[in-house]
Each structure stands twice: as C-alpha cells, then as structure tokens.
Design brief:
Its main location: membrane. The protein is mostly beta strands. It contains three helices and 15 strands. It folds into three domains: about 1-5 and about 160-220, no CATH class; about 20-155, Mannose-Binding Protein A, subunit A (Mannose-Binding Protein A, Chain A), CATH 3.10.100; about 235-268. The protein has helices spanning about 35-40, 50-65, 235-240; strands at about 25-30, 45, 70-80, 95, 120-130, 135-140, 150-155, 170, 180-185, 190-195, 200-205, 220-225, 230, 245-250, 250-255. It has a four-stranded antiparallel beta sheet. It has a four-stranded antiparallel beta sheet with strand order 8-9-10-11, with no helix packed on it. The chain has a three-stranded antiparallel beta sheet with strand order 1-7-2, sandwiched between helices.
C-alpha cells in the first residue's frame, strides 16, 4: 500500500485563486483572539481578507449560518505593542497574522482604530444584515482579550494525508476540492470523507467512525449502514426465510411454530 506521511502541498490549481466558499468556517462561540487563533490551527488560520472577492466569499459563509444577531467576528488582524496606529496606511499599522502582510484591497475600516502605540490591538470584521444577505461595515479594532465569534480559513498549503482504508476500494478525488474524498467499496457502498481542521479525514455525518474499516466485510448477518457501522440485517424482512412467523435475532433469525413446546421450528 502506498503510504503518504506528513503534510502535503496542494497543487497550484487548488491554491488561493480558486479557494471555494467552503474553505471558510464561521464559529459562533465567543473567545479571545489568541484562543480563536489556536482553535483554527493546524489546518486553518484566523482569516485574512486581501480583496473584495474573498470578502464576498466570507460574507456568503456568514449569511449561510442563518444567524442575524452576530455582527462582529475576529479575523487575523493585529497590531503589536510598540507599533503605532498610522491613519494613512491601508491597515493603519495592523498586519495579517498569517503572512505579516500590511495590504488589503478590500474596503477596510468602519471607524479609525484607537490611536495608540503602547497597546496590542486586534481586528474584527463588522457586518450588518439585510433580507438578501450579509454586508461588510469594515474592520473594527478591539482589545485582544475580549471575546467574540471568529472566522477560520483553510490553509491551502496543507491538506490531510491520504486516507488509509483497509480492503479493496476506489477513491474519488474531486479536482476542485482537496478537502473531500469519496470511498467506493466492492459492495457498492459509498462514503464521503472530509478533511477536518486537525488534518484528519472523518466521515461526513459521524466524525467518530473508524474510516479505515469502511470497506471491511461485517460478520455474517451484519452489513454496514450509511454511517459505516456494522448493523444487524433483518433477515425476516429482507429474505422472507420462513413459511411460519419469523423472529429476527442478532445476526440470524428463528422461524416460530406454535405446535412445538418451545415455539421454535425444527431446523430453523
């Protein structure tokens, strides 16, 4: 079996120019800037917003959360202690934590950030809602220990290692999405996987399933359900094995006969 270890570079065609909306995740739980940063790692980071195109994708992701009460989100924008706010710079002395860039082509500040050199400040995206979508009000600065919801963005330089699936199988790898795979087993069963923020492949719908077992045969009388678990097959309903009433049991069945003392037909 071919083993892939460590972290993998995404091909050029899957880089930031082609980043889908699904590469952003909005987390409504409130936390400090530092904790939000740590939560996004290792497969993501607090999002940057380098241009209006990426802003539009983020706003769509926020809108799709169907939550119109949250209007401020931590993004990966920060000003260090000892650096002064510069009102003539695009990011006013702040920088994107992912790459230390100080540029953004997006419409930026809602209000002028607090004029300080002495304090660390962090950046929020301010939004408002209409009947048709979410709209950006620009960036707002705040104390980094304050707690707000936050937005993570996939790190396009990192993807999950190749999933290790035991037994024969086919794997479908979408050319435009490095974060999903479909496993096709000899039985015809299909399972969709997603690459988690922790760079681990998980089954869509049940992240706790051992994906390595998805195509392994279950013991006699069992088969895998949509969640990849081996479940009992109801032989009575499926194959109608009895001429008499049928009782399904774990992994098997019994035919019931009223004329026998124990109610079980001979040979069942």
């Amino acid at each position: 079996m071919e083993l892939w270890t460590g972290l993998y570079l995404v091909s050029f065609l899957n880089m930031a120019c082609c980043l889908p909306e699904s590469s952003y995740t909005v987390h409504l739980i409130k936390d400090s800037f530092e904790n939000a940063q740590n939560y996004c790692k290792p497969g993501s980071f607090l999002t940057n917003i380098p241009n209006e195109k990426e802003m539009d994708k983020i706003l769509k992701t926020i809108w799709d959360m169907n939550n119109k009460t949250t209007t401020s989100f931590w993004i990966g924008l920060k000003k260090d202690k000892g650096i002064c706010v510069e009102k003539y710079l695009p990011l006013k002395g702040f920088y994107w934590t992912v790459d230390n860039s100080t540029q953004s082509d997006a419409k930026t500040w809602k209000t002028q950030p607090a004029s300080t050199c002495a304090n660390v400040r962090c950046g929020l995206l301010s939004v408002e809602y209409s009947d048709s979508g979410a709209k950006s009000n620009g960036f707002v600065d705040a104390g980094c220990k304050q707690k707000y919801p936050f937005i993570c963005k996939r790190n396009v330089k990192l993807v999950c290692p190749r999933p290790e699936i035991l037994a024969t199988h086919d794997m479908i790898e979408p050319s435009n999405d490095p974060y999903t795979r479909q496993i096709v087993c000899p039985s015809g069963a299909r399972f969709n996987l997603t690459c988690s923020k922790d760079l681990i492949w998980t089954l869509v719908g049940d992240k706790n399933v051992d994906i390595s077992q998805l195509c392994m045969e279950c013991k006699k009388g069992y088969r895998r359900d949509a969640s990849g678990n081996c479940v009992d097959v109801n032989k009575c309903d499926e194959s109608k094995p009895c001429q008499q009433p049928c009782l399904n049991t774990e992994g098997s069945y019994k035919c019931l006969c009223s004329d026998n003392e124990d109610g079980i037909c001979n040979g069942s």
